[in-house]
Design goal:
about 0% strand, mainly alpha, single chain, about 80 residues
Protein backbone atom coordinates (compact mmCIF):
# COMPACT_ATOMS: atom_id res chain seq x y z
CA UNK A 1 0.00 0.00 0.00
CA UNK A 2 1.45 3.44 -0.85
CA UNK A 3 2.65 5.39 2.20
CA UNK A 4 0.13 8.26 1.84
CA UNK A 5 -2.74 5.77 1.64
CA UNK A 6 -1.40 3.85 4.64
CA UNK A 7 -1.02 7.08 6.64
CA UNK A 8 -4.58 8.16 5.83
CA UNK A 9 -5.91 4.71 6.69
CA UNK A 10 -4.09 4.65 10.02
CA UNK A 11 -5.31 8.17 10.89
CA UNK A 12 -8.89 7.16 10.11
CA UNK A 13 -8.61 4.04 12.27
CA UNK A 14 -7.18 6.08 15.15
CA UNK A 15 -10.15 8.45 14.84
CA UNK A 16 -12.55 5.51 14.88
CA UNK A 17 -10.89 3.88 17.87
CA UNK A 18 -11.04 7.10 19.94
CA UNK A 19 -14.85 6.98 19.96
CA UNK A 20 -16.36 4.24 17.83
CA UNK A 21 -19.98 5.02 18.72
CA UNK A 22 -19.62 8.66 17.69
CA UNK A 23 -17.88 7.64 14.47
CA UNK A 24 -20.57 5.13 13.51
CA UNK A 25 -23.45 7.45 14.35
CA UNK A 26 -22.08 10.71 12.94
CA UNK A 27 -19.26 10.09 10.48
CA UNK A 28 -19.49 6.64 8.91
CA UNK A 29 -21.76 7.71 6.06
CA UNK A 30 -19.31 10.40 4.93
CA UNK A 31 -16.83 7.58 4.24
CA UNK A 32 -19.18 4.90 2.96
CA UNK A 33 -21.40 6.93 0.63
CA UNK A 34 -18.61 8.24 -1.64
CA UNK A 35 -16.88 4.85 -1.60
CA UNK A 36 -20.14 3.09 -2.49
CA UNK A 37 -20.64 5.44 -5.47
CA UNK A 38 -17.05 5.00 -6.68
CA UNK A 39 -17.28 1.21 -6.39
CA UNK A 40 -20.65 1.18 -8.17
CA UNK A 41 -19.22 3.20 -11.05
CA UNK A 42 -16.18 0.90 -11.24
CA UNK A 43 -18.35 -2.23 -11.28
CA UNK A 44 -21.10 -0.82 -13.49
CA UNK A 45 -23.65 -1.25 -10.71
CA UNK A 46 -25.99 1.04 -8.85
CA UNK A 47 -24.84 2.44 -5.50
CA UNK A 48 -27.78 0.70 -3.84
CA UNK A 49 -26.29 -2.64 -4.99
CA UNK A 50 -23.00 -2.07 -3.16
CA UNK A 51 -22.71 -3.30 0.41
CA UNK A 52 -19.71 -2.80 2.65
CA UNK A 53 -20.01 -4.95 5.71
CA UNK A 54 -18.63 -7.28 8.23
CA UNK A 55 -19.08 -11.01 8.20
CA UNK A 56 -22.09 -10.75 10.54
CA UNK A 57 -23.81 -8.32 8.19
CA UNK A 58 -23.08 -10.44 5.14
CA UNK A 59 -24.43 -13.57 6.80
CA UNK A 60 -27.74 -11.82 7.48
CA UNK A 61 -28.41 -10.63 3.93
CA UNK A 62 -30.59 -12.61 1.57
CA UNK A 63 -28.43 -13.81 -1.30
CA UNK A 64 -29.70 -14.89 -4.69
CA UNK A 65 -28.09 -17.02 -7.33
CA UNK A 66 -25.90 -14.76 -9.44
CA UNK A 67 -25.10 -12.30 -6.62
CA UNK A 68 -21.41 -11.48 -6.49
CA UNK A 69 -19.36 -10.80 -3.36
CA UNK A 70 -16.08 -8.95 -3.79
CA UNK A 71 -13.83 -9.00 -0.75
CA UNK A 72 -10.62 -7.35 0.21
CA UNK A 73 -8.19 -7.25 3.08
CA UNK A 74 -6.11 -4.48 4.52
CA UNK A 75 -3.16 -4.52 6.83
CA UNK A 76 -2.10 -1.82 9.23
CA UNK A 77 1.50 -1.49 10.22
CA UNK A 78 2.39 -1.65 13.90
CA UNK A 79 3.04 1.83 15.26
Amino acid sequence: MPNPVLAATEATFRSIERNIDRFIKLRLSEYLDPARHRMAKFLGAGPDEIVFGLNTVLRNLLWNEGDIIIGGRYRLSAS
